[in-house]
Amino acid sequence: xxxxxxxxxxxxxxxxxxxxxxxxxxxxxxxxxxxxxxxxxxxxxxxxxxxxxxxxxxxxxxxxxxxxxxxxxxxxxxxxxxxxxxxxxxxxxxxxxxxxxxxxxxxxxxxxxxxxxxxxxxxxxxxxxxxxxxxxxxxxxxxxxxxxxx
Length: 150
Description:
The chain is an alpha+beta fold. About 30% of the residues lie in helices and about 25% in strands.
């Protein structure tokens, strides 16, 4: 019987494997990094707060059987019991529902939910973020249904 000795395999990675990993990391960072910008995260957070505040305004109108106004500024949102948002509504924690963000822009708008939680006309609210992202929510006429537009 003849015994053949095999050479021990070298430890480590080849140059091709190392280059391939570096290229893949570069591609991933180029795709993911723009989505993690501070203004993009803040813009989405502002949109989510806007959506939740409009939904809360509708529920508040139904619960208190009175009109509740939503005031959309160029970069702010407020909920109140009077036109022009003069009498601010409070959230369950007791704080006024009034917030803003300079990294976003919106068309100014004021509308109200009646005691049944309905609005007279349909409203689309688009939040545009400085990085170019845009998010839209819709308040349906007659029903007051608040939802995200694709």
